[in-house]
Write a structure and sequence with these properties.
Strand content: 15-25%
Structural class: alpha/beta
Radius of gyration: 22 Å
Helix content: 25-40%
Order of helices and strands: EHEHEEEEHEHEEEEHEHHHHHHH
Bound molecules: ketopantoate
Distance between the termini: 48 Å
Number of domains: 2
CATH architecture of the largest domain: 3-Layer(aba) Sandwich
CATH class of the largest domain: Alpha Beta
CATH topology of the largest domain: Rossmann fold
Oligomer: single chain
Length: about 400
Amino acid sequence: MRIHILGLGPIGCLVAYHLRRTLPARHPITIIHKTQRMAVMARQAGNIITMETSGVTITANDFDQETADPHDEMLPVRNSKSTSTNPAFAPKSNVTTPIESLIVCVKAHKTLTAIRDLLPRISKDSTIVLVQNGMGVYEHLIQNLFRNQEQRPHFVLASVNHGAWLKEYLHVVHAGAGDLTFGIVPDYHGRQFEASLPDLNLDDITPNTHNDPSANHYLSLRNTIAALSSLSVLNTSWKSMYDTHMTMRRKVVVNAVINPLTALLNCRNGDVLAHKSGQNICRNVCQEASNAFQAQWKSELKDASNAGHDVGDAQFPEALSAASLVLECKRVAELTRFNYSSMLMDVRRARDTEILFLNGYLLGLGRKHNIYMPANNLLMNMMDLRSRIPLLS
Ligand SMILES: CC(C)(CO)C(=O)C(=O)O
């Protein structure tokens, strides 16, 4: 199987590095550079990814390379009088081979455009793994790129909380060990990927025999889950979609507190909850998020009950209570106290941020269920202002 990695930030590099060192060489790994310039830089540096932990660096090599923007080479002549018949305008990268497995580590707000460029190579037999901060990216893709359920690729959603940063292009520092949880989005055909719960079994995706008439359709999904599961160094675990969603909801709240506050205040993660005022904001954001989750929970139970399912006396999960979310924010702020959040880094580099998929996602949920969310709304507006008013150096 060939795996493509899209997005070579810290997490993309970490995943690519460990996949290359873990999987046998017969499984090629292609890293997709954003621009030709980056591809050239990578080639000059020996086509390697360097991983650094506690000052020790190790490299992985033998990556195949592609460039995401096929028109990138046009840039130097874009303002000339040349026409599209000029050979200088011809796309340099015309890779058309189908993509089996695509691990997407670009930022939430960049995902749609990044995947759109690869659409001709993605089919219903491909598997896309979404590894990024935030929630709502999958829904965004479905609405805009993959409306036809029958033609949709397989989707895996992942939540990652490793601490990592890039020292330079393709040189990642693994600063804090965490884990990587992932789950398979239910498919149109209703295949029971989680049939063996409480255990999960690759054979439920497609058995490793010749008995499954749909084996070809599910092979990339099975292989992708197997490859991710083999990364024990990254503490990867395949979980049910229910558990994966739970992890993602808790993480989106943590990011909705720490990321905008650090970006607005230009401070480290540890600083925001070290003071009473920061704790108050955190409590309000968590309370609002919990209210929205609870309203969503009730509405889903009602739907399930209307559809004739026995919902018994299902209780709202304690893990989504405001108190538990506050504790999680404190835990992560403490664990990553010396880090600069990804949103602060985006602001410093004058880049767009993931706010729409963090507080924006929570606000969307609140709107749907009529929950008043002033703290999240204020953070959203403040971040909007932040992106319009550059940081003074
Ligand atoms: C948890 C946190 C805040 C760690 O820095 C993070 O995920 C981010 O920076 O995006």
